[in-house]
Design a protein that fits this description.
3 helices, mainly alpha
């Protein structure tokens, strides 16, 4: 029980750090990496809540497809935010 709560708290704090880094980053490719890290932290939280079907879908969409689409869009624009 204690280990579960500690894992939830750690994942929540880790996701907060990744969100802050993604929002403040000027390099858009690094921001996508931080966004993927935040998605992985959310996946850990969902896994602790025993929502495995949601976790599988969330990982495929948020880490895989979402990141790939954003990298493609950024390749068509500039790498750095003005």
């Amino acid at each position: 029980m204690i280990l579960t709560i500690l894992l939830l708290v750690f994942s929540s704090l880790l996701s907060l750090v990744f969100v802050y880094l993604a929002v403040t980053e000027k390099n858009l490719l690094k921001a996508i990496g931080f966004s993927a890290g935040q998605s992985i932290a959310y996946s850990i939280i969902l896994h602790v809540f025993a929502a495995t079907d949601i976790v599988l879908t969330y990982i495929a969409v948020s880490v895989g497809i979402y990141s790939a689409v954003l990298v493609y869009v950024i390749s068509k624009t500039e790498k750095y935010e003005v």
